[in-house]
Specification:
It is a single chain. With 435 residues, this protein is of the alpha/beta class. Helix content is 44%, strand content 13%. It has 18 helices and 14 strands. It has helices at 10-21, 33-40, 51-60, 97-106, 126-135, 153-158, 170-183, 185-189, 199-230, 234-242, 263-276, 285-307, 335-345, 358-364, 374-378, 391-394, 398-402, 419-424, and strands spanning 2-6, 25-29, 64-67, 78-81, 115-118, 140-143, 163-166, 194-197, 316-320, 349-353, 369-370, 383-386, 409-412, 428-431. Strands 3-2-1-4-5-6 form a six-stranded parallel beta sheet, sandwiched between helices. A six-stranded parallel beta sheet has the order 11-10-9-12-13-14. Helix 1 packs across helix 3 and helix 9 (199-230) runs parallel beside helix 12 (285-307). It binds uridine-5'-diphosphate-xylopyranose. Uridine-5'-diphosphate-xylopyranose (UDX) binds next to helix 9.
Length: 435
């Protein structure tokens, strides 16, 4: 089927190439001319494992074309809206201007019977407003939230763990759902669970899922705070409670907490929207979830100051990791980069290493020093902070690393290292939530 994708960021670009790999004829549209140019050449504008190959194949096979002109969507029957909904300046609410602009630009090019599929994360109630504009030209809106994780974006798009549609009532909704089913025929045939519901529920599913995940992470980080004062080990605690299948061990990794372009802003936007609906109390706990999360960053800085003897001024601090998570070059709300910047603010000489995110990090925090060579980053360090759990850091040889640094002191912000091995190699090992 011919489909269009409006917005070619992490979500849209991966979605467009994935839909092409399923056999559809895809046209992608973005207002960013540089991004369009790069994608048209089959070159990814960001790092995402497996995406380069998928994109090159899709463009090479002629199944994916990209354009900066929204008129290119004409002729497609299903139009995916994949633009961002960042946190609004000066408030916790979502900035919907990109979604509004995308739908406004699409409407003049829609044909009767087309389906517009919203994938962006939006405050509950948004779809109903957009649906009226789409229906005015004889098309139908389906809300189909996206659950992809960066680092696993391709696999999550091609093999999602569920497919959710919010549709209008009656035959119109059924027909629209059937058309989107054709686009997702392959994952549906694989047995992917499907939930078809109303707009409000579909919108809420996304923020509820991200709120639950954020809460799970902050729960274990709250336990880490307790472990720190009581002398417990949060890693063993997580292992033990995780054996209870009702709890589960996944997303119970204590450490520097969550960042990125989704979890932090989604919980804030959820609180803002709940307030508007007069139900702020129902999700007030998310304020605590957010507070626990940011306290971890402050605690990491405290720990660095402590091991440096109370004064960081002039100390050389090697920060390993700038991306908000491994296998990504995304530094949006990155806990690692935040800690690096705070230590820089205290007068430390911070040297940041990351396998993929240095260019993005430099744009955001230009005053920090960056080093692409891991051993050079470690050389002469008074303390090493592991703040993103890249494989490169897990695989470090602690004995070799000890020979490079000025003082063998390591702070493991992600529970990434083998504590015994590092201690055996002569390192002073400190971690959040562990003795
Ligand atoms: C998230 C959701 O997982 C995804 O379903 C949604 O579509 C978008 O938002 P993503 O932002 O890619 O995906 O990252 P995720 O893997 O959820 O990790 C978020 C943050 O939590 C990262 O900073 C990660 O380091 C942190 N995290 C994750 C922990 O601190 N502990 C954990 O146990 C898991």
């Amino acid at each position: 089927m011919r489909v269009s994708v409006v917005g070619l960021g992490y979500l849209g670009a991966v979605h467009a190439a994935s839909m092409a790999s399923l056999g559809h004829e895809v046209v992608g549209v973005d207002v960013d001319a540089a991004r369009v140019e790069s994608l048209a050449l089959g070159k990814s504008p960001f790092f995402e494992p497996g995406f380069d190959e998928l994109l090159a194949r899709a463009v090479g096979a002629g199944r994916l074309s990209v354009s900066a002109d929204v008129a290119a969507v004409a002729g497609a029957r299903v139009h995916f809206v994949c633009v961002g909904t960042p946190q609004a300046a000066g408030s916790g609410a979502a900035d919907l201007s990109f979604v509004e602009a995308a739908v406004s630009s699409l409407v003049p090019h829609l044909a009767v019977g087309d389906v517009v599929v919203g994938k962006s994360t939006v405050p509950v109630g948004t779809a109903t407003g957009l649906a009226a504009r789409v229906e005015a030209v004889g098309a139908t809106l389906v809300w189909n939230p996206e659950f992809l994780r960066e680092g696993f974006a391709v696999a999550d798009t091609l093999h999602p763990d569920r497919i959710v549609y919010g549709v209008p009532e009656g035959e119109v909704g059924r027909r629209a759902a059937a058309l989107v089913d054709e686009v997702y025929a392959t994952p549906l045939a694989e047995g992917t669970p499907q939930v078809v519901t109303d707009y409000a529920t579909a919108e809420l599913v996304k923020v509820a899922a991200n709120s639950f995940l954020a809460t799970k992470i902050s729960f274990i980080n709250a336990m880490a705070e307790l472990c720190e004062v009581a002398g417990g080990d949060v890693t063993r605690l997580a292992d033990a409670i995780g054996h209870d299948q009702r709890i589960g061990r996944r997303f119970l990794n204590a450490g520097l907490g969550f960042g990125g372009g989704c979890l932090p802003k989604d919980i804030r936007a959820f609180m803002a929207r709940a307030d508007e609906l007069g139900a702020g109390e129902a999700v007030a706990f998310l304020g605590e979830v957010d507070a626990i999360n940011t306290r971890r960053r402050a605690r990491m800085v405290e720990l660095a100051v402590e091991v440096l003897g109370g004064d960081v001024a002039g100390a050389r601090v090697a920060v390993l990791g700038a991306a908000f998570k491994p296998d990504s070059d995304d530094v949006r709300d990155s806990p690692a980069l935040d800690v690096a910047a705070r230590l820089d603010g205290l007068g430390a000489h911070v040297v940041v290493h990351d396998p993929q995110a240095i260019d993005n990090a430099r744009r955001k925090e230009p005053s920090l020093a960056y080093e692409r060579d891991l051993e050079a980053a470690l050389t002469g360090a008074d303390v090493v902070l592991v703040l993103t759990e890249w494989r490169h850091y897990r695989d470090l040889d602690p004995a070799r690393a000890a020979g490079l640094v000025a003082r063998p002191q390591v702070l493991d912000g992600r529970g990434a290292l083998d504590r015994d091995a590092w201690q055996a190699a002569g390192w002073t090992y400190r971690a959040l939530g562990r003795p």
